[in-house]
Write a sequence for this structure.
């Protein structure tokens, strides 16, 4: 068991550096989106109407619930409520799975109607519409990958709790995993209005 007085400054700084690089990555993509939105406003508005607002809203609610759950898990472990912490972590992971399932359905529908990179339907669209859907797949795809990574980190924390490697005196792994998950949720809060509320 790690000592209660162990200095975790290095771990925290390392995680913040990782988060900073992720912010730079998505920030660059959002700037690119803004530049093309200015160039093709009508095409972006037209394309945005083809996205499913219901799934976008549902996934936003799911991620907000998951953010609360992961924060509750950290508070619970600090209060030595191990079972509650585990329950909240499993709820967070479940929310992540539901989010990915919804995104799979949404992407699946787009593929069914032929709107995907390299398709004939996409080739017939205007340049602005092509760019909109290209950015949609790149940004939401990258975000989905980050959801998977976040779930893996949370699952690792669950295993560590079961192994008694995370407790009220030593929870830096869980805290860092929670920070990563909050970033993933925050990124979605930007993605949601850019693509789904543009109509």
């Amino acid at each position: 068991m790690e000592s209660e007085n162990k200095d975790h400054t290095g771990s925290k700084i390392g995680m913040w550096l990782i988060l900073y690089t992720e912010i730079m990555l998505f920030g660059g993509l959002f700037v690119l989106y803004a530049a093309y939105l200015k160039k093709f406003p009508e095409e972006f508005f037209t394309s945005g109407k083809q996205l499913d607002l219901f799934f976008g809203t549902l996934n936003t609610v799911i991620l907000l619930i998951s953010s609360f759950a992961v924060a509750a898990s950290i508070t619970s472990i600090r209060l030595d409520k191990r079972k509650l912490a585990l329950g909240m972590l499993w709820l967070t992971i479940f929310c992540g799975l539901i989010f990915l399932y919804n995104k799979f359905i949404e992407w699946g529908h787009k593929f069914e109607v032929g709107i995907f990179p390299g398709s004939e339907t996409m080739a017939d669209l205007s340049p602005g519409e092509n760019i909109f859907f290209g950015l949609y797949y790149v940004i939401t795809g990258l975000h989905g990958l980050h959801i998977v990574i976040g779930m893996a980190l949370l699952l690792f924390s669950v295993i560590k709790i079961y192994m008694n490697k995370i407790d009220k005196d030593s929870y830096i792994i869980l805290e860092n995993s929670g920070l990563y998950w909050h970033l993933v949720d925050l990124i979605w809060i930007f993605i949601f209005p850019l693509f789904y509320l543009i109509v």
Summary: Helices lie at 9-39, 41-48, 53-78, 82-112, 120-124, 127-162, 172-196. The two ends are 53 Å apart (CA to CA). Residues 9-196 form a domain with the Four Helix Bundle (Hemerythrin (Met), subunit A) fold (CATH 1.20.120.80). Residues 1-5 have pLDDT under 50 and may be disordered.
